Amino acid sequence: MRRGSVAALVVIGLIAGGIAAAVALLIPWLPPDASRQAGRTDFEFWFVVTICIVIFAIVSAVMIYSVWRFRAAPDDTSDGPPIHGHTGLEIAWTVIPTILVTAIGITSAIVLSRNGAVASNVMRINVTAQQFAWTFNYPEANNLSSSTLMLPKNREVELYMQSKDVIHSFFVPQFRLTQDIVPGITTKLVITPDKDGTYPVICHELCGLGHATMRTTAVVMEPAAFDKWLKSQSKAIGSPNPSVAGLTVFTDNGCAACHTLTAAKAKGTVGPDLDKLKQYAAQAHQPLQSFITTSIVNPNAYIQPGYPRNVMPQTFGKSLTKQQLDALVTYLVNSAK
Ligand code: CUA
Description:
By secondary structure, the chain is an alpha+beta fold. It is built from nine helices and twelve strands. It folds into three domains: about 5-65 and about 85-115; about 125-220, Immunoglobulin-like (Sandwich), CATH 2.60.40; about 240-335, Cytochrome Bc1 Complex, Chain D, domain 2.
């Protein structure tokens, strides 16, 4: 190849690559990022974009140069010379893309696993999606319920997401994270917000007529402000009156669906009748309070005759806070009198 041809190819490549890079960098395609995960996602995004710009520059240079250099004269109707491939070229265009795709695969896997890693002090938030609304529950705060996603800055949170009807998808562009919410399963998403602000929470999956309206906001605040918010919201739930607090835990955790308890106006019949707790505790030869605590935390420890094993969820020991558990036990002890 003549030296002039190489120079022409390089110049065209630099111009094409420069234009592509300018389009990529000068237009603010992405909103500002607001989570620790966003930095990793953006790294992967720009890694792929950079590869694409280089390939675009090379392909543009070869294409534009060929169109210009090998164009046929208007009266030239002859066939082009027959070409039988080029082994070196074919190896190159197989090996280079293989390396690039493998590199993208490896870096993506690292980003995904780092973004999904859960810290030991992670805060759990339960997310319920339904046509066409979001509900956020804070198990650490008596299952406090909110339609806005309130988040403390720099604390890792893990969303446990469930759908009541169809497939929805949780998406906050500034966090660079999205996750489908599929009926029947719980999907999870880890977020560590690192900038104060208010960001849109968008449903990212066509879920029905109101899909476009299925939006709320995520508010990231300083930890002190977050604690203050939790306290103000929890006042009613964490009421010093144990019967108010205990009844709230009883109701919020769906106990009434399976149990009868006159004090709570509950009429469920799947599980044991909680009006008879004293009688059951006597049958189990256990003091009332520890009998109730064990039955909530480890329901298979004693099965009241006539009721099935493994029906009562065995997760309350984990999902209830100590404060909630105490409130519930006190409430049940008092109701049993
Ligand atoms: Cu929910 Cu779209």
